[in-house]
């Protein structure tokens, strides 16, 4: 899923049911999940968040996640609190320093308005509908196929 500066999100089909909100500057909550996706193909528990990069491939933010009130663990209901912080690069050339007036390294800051952070969440199990195909003889044409859905 994509999380934007104002707390809105763009969901993949796998993340349907997720809701998001901006709590304060640099603080966002994701509801409807069971934490970050733990699949090693996606980086495991610690690799479920991708931050925006500048054109020089330097991260534009520091990011942390956990629960409400600064807890390091996600909330018991599986919701996640994402915290974003300003991340300058003082040793980089001027064009790549990511300096923003009024913000020091590590200050809470919103996700930049021209981008998003990508978050891979673990979704609760849902009942999947399996398509059942039934063939009904038809005297005029060959066979007519009817599709119905039944729970798996």
Describe the structure concisely for a colleague:
The protein is an all-beta fold and 152 residues long. The protein has strands spanning 2-3, 9-10, 19-24, 27-31, 49-50, 61-66, 80-86, 117-119, 129-137, 143-151.
Relevant terms:
0% helix, mainly beta
Overview of the structural elements:
With 152 residues, the chain is mostly beta strands. A hairpin with a 2-residue loop joins strand 3 (19-24) and strand 4. It is built from no helices and 10 strands. The chain has strands at residues 2-3, 9-10, 19-24, 27-31, 49-50, 61-66, 80-86, 117-119, 129-137, 143-151. 0% of the residues lie in helices and 34% in strands. The model has no long low-confidence stretch (mean pLDDT 84). It is globular, with a radius of gyration of 22 Å.
The DSSP helix count reads: 0
Rg over CA atoms, rounded to whole Å, is: 22 Å
List SSEs in N-to-C order.
EEEEEEEEEE
Low-confidence stretches: none
The N- to C-terminal Cα distance equals 27 Å
**Shape assignment:** globular
How do the strands of the widest beta sheet line up side by side?
A: 2-1-8-5
Biggest beta sheet summary: 4 strands, antiparallel
Helical/strand content category: mainly beta
Percent helix range: under 10%
Q: Tell me the number of strands.
A: 10
